[in-house]
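Need a sequence for this fold. Nothing fancy.
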């Protein structure tokens, strides 16, 4: 099962897949990548339930795909 969390204010999306490390993508960095040190608020949200969790909205895969297309990403670019 895959879950997408979207931060509309900061144009950031998280992809959380069962059995895999969470990944992040943003409008200004349009490639999925592992959560890094610069992503501390999102790491805290995912792993501790703290941080910026209140800014994140769970979206469907279709909505996530639409947002990525708005950002100019294709499925191949984003992976």
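Here you go.
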């Amino acid at each position: 099962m895959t879950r997408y969390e979207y931060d509309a204010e900061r144009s950031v999306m998280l992809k959380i897949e069962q059995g895999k490390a969470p990944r992040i993508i943003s409008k200004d960095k349009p490639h999925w990548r592992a959560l890094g040190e610069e992503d501390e608020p999102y790491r805290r949200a995912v792993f501790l339930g703290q941080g910026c969790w209140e800014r994140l909205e769970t979206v469907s895969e279709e909505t996530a795909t639409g947002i990525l297309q708005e950002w100019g990403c294709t499925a191949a670019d984003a992976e």
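For context: The beta strands are 2-7, 12-17, 23-26, 29-34, 57-59.
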